[in-house]
Amino acid sequence: MFVTWRLSLLVAVGVVPVVAASALGGVDAWVAAALWVILCALLAVVDVAAATSPRVLRISRDAPAKTLLGAQTSVRLRIANTGSRRIRGRLRDAWQPTAGAPAERLPLEIPPGERRDLVVPLLPRRRGTLASEMVVVRSHGPLGLAGRQRAIPSRGEVRVLPPFTSRRHLPSRLARLRELDGNTSIQVRGQGTEFDSLREYVRGDDVRSIDWRSTARAGTTMLRTWRPERDRHVVIVIDTGRTAAARVGDGTRLDAAMEASLLLAALAARAGDHVHLVMFDRVTRARVTGVDGPGLLATMVEAMAGVEAQLIDTDWDAAHAQVRALTNRPALVVLLTAQDDVDSARAFLGSLPALTARTRVVVGTVTDSAGNRPDREDAVDVYRAAARERGAFEASRVAEAIARAGGDAIADTPEGLPPRIADRYLALKAAGRL
After folding, report:
1. Exposed end of the chain (fewer CB within 10 Å): N or C?
2. Homologous superfamily (CATH) for 230-430
3. Would you identify the CATH topology of the domain 54-161?
4. What is the pTM of this model?
């Protein structure tokens, strides 16, 4: 049972004239007011009795299995009235707030024996599985004072995946990759260290690439051509420890790390390299390995969807052990973490040399996009600017320590980090170092 605002209005509006009339007639005002409230309560009970029971409704759902974070989607509710009376009221689908369902209840009116479809729009604001366990229906009585309410079990769920907004950078990077592979009209000589083919020597070619055995057989100077290496291993490690929970821009550092890893994985897979993903703090939160080709990105976003940052420090010795378990060959290891404070980065920096000794390591860090404000109007602005400057200084010290340990440190905003890591990957390919 529920009551509407009309019952409250009826009680409030009726009390004043009833009390005034009782004063003129010699009746006690409190008795008259109590009688009026009792009359209103009886009207509400009659209204509830006259309302159609929501038990006669049968509800089914048509919901998308997956959607992207921040993308508009909708769930269709099919509601059938199996009773013999018309039902009028309102309905609310019980999604959690992060699903972005409308707060207002949807109007509902179904004649007996008929069915209606209602569309519930969703705008997800959190990755993972969003679920609704029930639909709450309110059936109004004919007077509109009260009615019947019932929660009807009807489970629906939507898997919310990372949006991969950095996809817009992929076409330009793929064009550069095709140039490196020699598949476009732009031929770059001398790049790569993997043998491609033989051709005749042309003035200006690097004489170190002459194949003397082929030259002897062909009777003319033959040159070996090279291409960037394929079939290499790229290991992406995303730190899911406490530093990944910090908000940067419109999201968290973990969200930005996911964007960078998806862009790099798409590029490396197109280049023919093997991509491995580990999301780790003290335990493995997600792991993708042994997947190549078109199914790689779909597998990665599915694995990432339900991972959230944990408020614990990352065990970097264990994380590097995960890297060694994935490949025993020289590889490119990309560590997406937030190492911007010297004191908190001691464990990370202490374990880094053991990793850089056998692999090439790139450390990507998401930084705050807010720069120093020139208009420092009050003390709060001054303190914020000082904190940003202090943070930038500490981050530069950590970057220098990473470079001394043999790694590459890349720090940028959430929008700038994914293309910079992709460019670093292409640069390593072009230089024949990967």
Report:
1. N
2. von Willebrand factor, type A domain (3.40.50.410)
3. Immunoglobulin-like (2.60.40)
4. 0.79
